[in-house]
Amino acid sequence: MDESTRPATSAPAPTGPYPAGPYRIVFANEKGGTGKSTTAVHVAIALAYQGARVAAIDLDARQRTLHRYLENRAETQACRKIDLPSATFAVYEGTSVAELDAMIDELSRSHDFLVFDTPGRDDPLARHVATGADTLVTPLNDSFVDFDLIGQVDAETFKVRRLSFYAELIWEARKERAKSQIRDARRAMDWVVVRNRTQHIEARNQRRIDLALTELSKRVGFRIAKGLSERVIYRELFPSGFTLLDKGHLGELGTSHLVARQELRALVAGLKLPLPPLDARRPQGVLEGIA
Ligand SMILES: Nc1ncnc2c1ncn2[C@@H]1O[C@H](COP(=O)(O)OP(=O)(O)OP(=O)(O)O)[C@@H](O)[C@H]1O
Ligand SMILES: [Mg+2]
After folding, report:
1. Residue 285 lies in a domain
2. pLDDT tens over the chain, length 291 residues
3. Which residues sit with Cβ closer than 5 angstroms to ligand 2, an ion?
């Protein structure tokens, strides 16, 4: 499609409740290493802290970072005899869309949220779940190398020259999704580009990315949210499966994790996810973890 003829869309803020099953959040970006899995784990656990029943489905059967993270969390809980809010976790190792849908149907019966992590490459299953996403989260690092996947910019002015294949792909996914919105009474897809792994030393680059992203968001209809900064703590938590929300279990981490936790809360709020009514949630008694 010629981008000049493409209508600007405004991204819908999702509201609930809806009849079409659990809310599906898909973390996807064909660029590797942007923080999909790390962000997916933190969002899944943040929802669990709010009493939601969450299933985390890893579609990256090779790396299975999301799955491994939650497996580590389960082991830590068993070893330390502690009970933390968590998520059901599964990895899909097949190649068939029908089998994946069967697994999704099964998990849908007993969960409020399905969180999908996808591989950092083009993948048919990732495309399939992206089309079914209620919220599609694309973590993007503050680099024009990453930006290039969704839009190409002019070398002199940094203005967006044209859309790239990934933006086209999501555009198509949203069109498909719009059909099922009518057919199956699904929600509209909310596409959120999350600026992730940001570093404070890059003010000029950040400003340029800001301008280019804002311009592109109006054309393609995504929202922009601030994600997680680049912090060593995100790399250190993996073996234990802890997240920043697990107060009292993180040891001597200094004050930087307080700021990091605040960042995570802001990210979750920015995603505008519809929580089920309080009386329908599990009694975690740990709502302060995210509040
Ligand atoms: N905010 C962050 N600060 C510091 N390190 C981070 C942050 N987010 C992720 N990382 C680290 O960067 C690496 C890639 O992160 P992650 O696995 O979450 O990305 P990904 O997008 O899922 O990658 P892939 O495309 O390979 O699946 C990991 O070593 C992870 O610990
Ligand atoms: Mg990953």
Report:
1. no
2. 443 333 333 344 444 444 468 999 999 999 999 999 999 999 999 999 999 999 999 999 999 999 999 999 999 999 999 999 999 999 999 999 999 999 999 999 999 999 999 999 999 999 999 999 999 999 999 888 999 988 888 888 888 888 888 888 888 888 888 887 777 777 889 999 999 998 876 778 888 888 889 988 988 889 999 999 999 889 999 999 999 999 888 776 667 788 899 999 999 999 999 986 656 555 544 433 333
3. 36-37, 65
Give the list of residues 6+ apart from residue 182 with CB closer than 8 angstroms, or none: none
Enter the tokens of residue 158.
């940094």
Which tokens in the block code for residue 117? 């992590």
Q: List the beta bridge partners of residue 194.
A: 139, 225
> What CATH code is carried by the domain that includes residue 211?
3.40.50.300
From the CA of 260, the nearest ligand is 1
Domain count for the chain, please give it: 1
Q: Both tokens of residue 11?
A: 């991204």
Q: What is the value of pTM for the model shown?
A: 0.89
Tell how far CA 204 is from the center of its chain: 26
Residues with CB under 6 A from ligand 1: 32-38, 60, 63, 65, 119-120, 197, 228, 230-231, 234-235
The answer to the question of residue 91 being in a domain is yes
Mutational test site, ligand 1, from 27, 38, 231, max ligand atoms within 8 Å of CB: 38
Phi, psi of 71 (to 5 degrees): -65, -45
Confirm whether 17 is domain-assigned. Answer: no
Of all protein residues, the one whose alpha carbon is nearest to atom 3 of ligand 1 is 230
Structure tokens at 163: 């859309």
